[in-house]
Write a structure and sequence with these properties.
Blueprint: H1 2-13, H2 16-20, H3 34-43, H4 45-52, H5 56-72, H6 79-89, H7 95-103, H8 112-145
Helix pairs in contact: 1-3, 5-6, 5-7, 6-8, 7-8
């Protein structure tokens, strides 16, 4: 899959020690080589988007593949959080797909419990952001109805 290849390229750009480090409260900002990870994923952004745009089932498979790969590496702290943030920031995976992954129970892919623990605060942020967007849309819809 493309994720292991991209992560391997990110590892080559930095040392293995800095690759696995990261603050679990970090939502993808730059620390300890995270810029290298972001830059490498950025190179493949168009490829991901071409294959995954408007294909939520494939986006979900991508998240599960990332989860499995992360689990196979021994669940490095902060890595899954960074990659979820990157996939969100680069608009590769849709909000609804992240939420589906969170709620979906699938024993085929190991490490879901550990993964949820790693990205729980990020999901709290995502859900809050979704609620705020819905409220703004409701307000916009309400103001339009008075002008017609």
């Amino acid at each position: 899959m493309l994720i292991p290849y991209i992560i391997e390229k990110a590892k080559q750009a930095t040392s293995d020690d800095t690759f696995n480090e990261g603050d679990s409260n970090n939502s993808g900002s730059s620390t300890n080589g995270n810029d290298h990870e972001r830059d490498v994923l950025s190179k493949y952004r168009a490829v991901f988007q071409a294959f995954l745009e408007d294909k939520p089932n494939l986006q979900l498979i991508l998240l599960y593949s990332l989860q499995s790969f992360w689990y196979g590496l021994g669940c490095p702290k902060g890595m899954l959080l960074r990659w979820f943030s990157f996939l969100y920031d680069f608009e590769i995976v849709e909000d609804d797909v992240f939420l589906k992954w969170k709620e979906d129970i699938n024993d085929e892919y190991p490490g879901k419990g550990q993964a949820l623990f790693q990205v729980n605060k990020w999901f709290e942020w995502l859900e809050k952001d979704e609620e705020e967007e819905e409220e703004e849309e409701d307000e916009d819809d309400g103001s339009d109805s008075g002008t017609k």
